[in-house]
UniProtKB/TrEMBL annotation:
Keywords: Cell outer membrane, Lipoprotein, Membrane, Palmitate, Signal. One of its GO terms (molecular function) is lipopolysaccharide binding. This is LPS-assembly lipoprotein LptE. It comes from Frederiksenia canicola. Belongs to the LptE lipoprotein family.
Length: 166
């Protein structure tokens, strides 16, 4: 009997079109954005645009006349510092840091600066330079993805700020 009841509930839920809503995380004003970047073809810009689309945020073209919020990718900075050295005084481990600064401007409300930082360690062995170079590029791509997800979390967090300003 319990088995038949659970099958009936599953059939009813699938038949009525019920589904989870992912984009209700974002405020209504920010579900449609104009996306601007100094370099539209940079890795960070492309990854952030893809993350916006994956989260059901509509991106309108820059030349559109629709009054909508604007997400501007201001800067992306990658730095590295030495964390440890080998006995021969060669670099062994580095700390890679990525800082991304962006601004969300909502018409008739305000501009909200956003900044995220991502840090990773990287073991750098100069004897395997080609493999380590490829590994470093992979780590930086992962850092871009993590930074873009953090930016989206901060954009979703603007919900309380936007509700204050009416």
């Amino acid at each position: 009997m319990l088995k038949k009841l659970s099958v009936l509930v599953v059939l009813l839920l699938t038949a009525c079109g019920w589904q989870f809503k992912n984009n209700e995380l974002f405020p209504e004003e920010l579900r449609t954005l104009r996306y601007e970047s100094a370099d539209q073809n940079s890795d960070m810009s492309r990854i952030l645009r893809n993350q916006l689309l994956l989260n059901d945020i509509t991106i309108v073209p820059a030349e559109s006349k629709i009054r909508t919020a604007t997400l501007r990718l201001n800067s992306t900075e990658t730095t590295s510092r030495v964390a440890s050295v080998f006995k021969q005084a060669r670099e062994a481990e580095k700390i890679l840091s990525l800082t991304v600064k962006a601004t969300v401007s909502v018409p008739e409300k305000a501009s909200y600066p956003l900044e995220v930082s991502v840090h990773r360690t990287f073991f750098d062995d100069s004897r395997a330079a080609l493999a380590k170079s490829e590994e470093k590029e992979s780590i930086i791509r992962q850092m871009y993805e993590q930074a873009s997800r953090q930016l989206l979390i901060k954009i979703a967090g603007l919900h309380s700020e936007l509700s204050k300003v009416k």
